[in-house]
Automatic annotation (TrEMBL):
Native source species: Aeromicrobium endophyticum
Record keywords, A-Z: Endonuclease, Hydrolase, Nuclease
Superkingdom: Bacteria
This protein's name: HNH endonuclease
GO molecular function per UniProt: endonuclease activity
Amino acid sequence: MSTTSRFSEETRAVILARAGYCCELCGRSSRIWSGWSVHHRRPARMGGDRRPETRGAANGVLLCGSGVDGCHGWIESHPAEARGKGLILRRDEIPAEVVVELKRGAVLLDDRGGFELAA
Ligand SMILES: [Zn+2]
């Protein structure tokens, strides 16, 4: 399954810059690992959910690994825990409105590449 095709190149660049080119869960630098990926918190499934709130930077988290290894693999193999951390969202949840627990803390991401620490 391709998980990166739905973000525009511009949005992917914004996510990478926000992440400082490091995995947003474990902090590993993307310069020392290959196979990084942008995880969709609200995934595109069953023919594609193309609503605008899923295309912004708030819906993407830069992770090491792919769907089977690294932090991306952890999310795929621990969906309940990932959901509890805001890393996997339901279809009716707006990414910019759901706190996500990253290495930098519990934050609300916005669609332009910014974030604020959640109270
Ligand atoms: Zn990682």
